[in-house]
Design brief:
Structural class: alpha/beta
CATH architecture: Alpha-Beta Complex
Largest sheet: 8 strands, mixed
Mean pLDDT: 97
Strand order of the largest sheet: 2-1-3-4-5-8-6-7
Low-confidence stretches: none
Bound molecules: alpha-D-ribofuranose, calcium ion
Order of helices and strands: EHEHHHEHEHHEHHHHEEEH
Radius of gyration: 17 Å
Distance between the termini: 23 Å
CATH topology: Inosine-uridine Nucleoside N-ribohydrolase, Chain A
Helix content: 25-40%
Shape: globular
CATH class: Alpha Beta
Number of domains: 1
Length: 307
């Protein structure tokens, strides 16, 4: 079977971590690189978390050196949401894996060239690394088959009234990705991801099942549930990056709407807002909903991989 070459750009991050667990368990994917970027927590933590996750999962992929700050704005992190270390306080063992000698944007370009137009890219954090790559290598946009972003919202933001976190951290980078000529652009926003939010019981049923990584997955799932209940009085858990990864792996579980989207990059009152409309030139497939039953089946299959 020809495997699907993918590059993951992320800011682990508890939900990024579960998304990487899913990607690694998917036999049809070949994860060529996981590139960390500053986001949920400072780059020093997102990068170390990426290295340790790759080692812990036994993955054979490159880990490029990513951006430690957004293109233009000041750094903006969410330590209270992911724990100050980014993994809710779970300490993964330090392994032997080291960073690639190349920067994330160079790694992305090299893997895109090697994949000869078949590379699929998923961005689970701010788009800083990918924006730099698109500017450094003008031909890159023609070499990426699809890009899936966990980004945006058509409803209330999670950083303020308007903006979803990844876009708020680096709105200019997100706009650069949207302006690119990458063939297929998909965006899984807070509202679409919410259609597959899990209850505590569903999370226990999935992430608690016995496997060689259950201690980690169960800890992360319980951290997310406790945080959501204690910080926002939520009774369901919107594991945003995991939903985006599932939709990229199996687009048939997702229902998208073709929209026009641009990012508010100037008005500091609403900076980072995803301005989405059904009018105008369509530049994006925006997630409306995903099939929760099939999503949960994918996650149960994922845990069986690690038995
Ligand atoms: O707004 C949610 C997104 O921002 C997720 O990707 C989370 O990990 C953070 O990066
Ligand atoms: Ca993320």
């Amino acid at each position: 079977m020809n495997k699907r070459p993918i590059v993951i750009d992320c800011d682990p991050g508890v939900d990024d971590a579960l998304a990487i667990v899913l990607a690694n368990a998917c036999p049809e994917l070949e994860v060529k690189a996981i590139n960390p970027v500053a986001g949920n927590v400072p780059y020093s933590s997102t990068s170390e978390n990426t290295l340790r996750l790759v080692d812990y999962l036994g993955m054979d992929c490159r880990v490029g050196k990513g951006a430690d700050r957004p293109l233009l704005l000041e750094r903006f992190t969410a330590g209270k949401v992911h724990g100050l270390d980014g993994l809710g306080g779970y300490v993964l063992p330090k392994g032997s894996k080291d960073f690639d000698e190349k920067n994330a944007w160079d790694v992305l370009y090299e893997e895109a060239v090697k994949a000869k137009g078949e590379l699929e890219l998923i961005i689970l954090g701010p788009c800083t690394n990918v924006a730099i790559a698109l500017k450094a290598y003008p031909e890159l946009e023609n070499l990426i088959k699809s890009v899936t972003l966990m980004a945006g919202t058509r409803g209330k933001g999670n950083t303020n009234l308007f903006a979803e976190f990844n876009v708020r951290v680096d709105p200019h980078a997100t706009q650069i990705v949207l302006d690119s000529k990458i063939k297929e652009k998909y965006m899984c926003g807070l509202d679409g991801n919410l259609t597959v939010a899990l209850t505590r019981e569903e999370g226990d049923e999935i992430f608690g099942v016995e496997s060689r990584i259950t201690e980690f997955t169960d800890y992360i799932a319980k951290f997310i549930d406790h945080r959501n209940k204690s910080m926002w009085n939520l009774t369901v858990n919107n594991i945003n990056d995991l939903c985006a990864m599932a939709c990229m792996i199996d687009p048939s579980i997702a229902e998208y709407s073709d929209v026009n989207c641009h990012i508010e990059c100037f008005n500091m009152e609403s900076i980072g807002q995803t301005v989405i409309s059904e009018e105008g030139e369509k530049n994006l497939h925006y997630l409306i909903k995903a099939d929760k039953e099939r999503y949960m089946d994918m996650l149960k299959e994922m845990m069986r991989y690690y038995k």
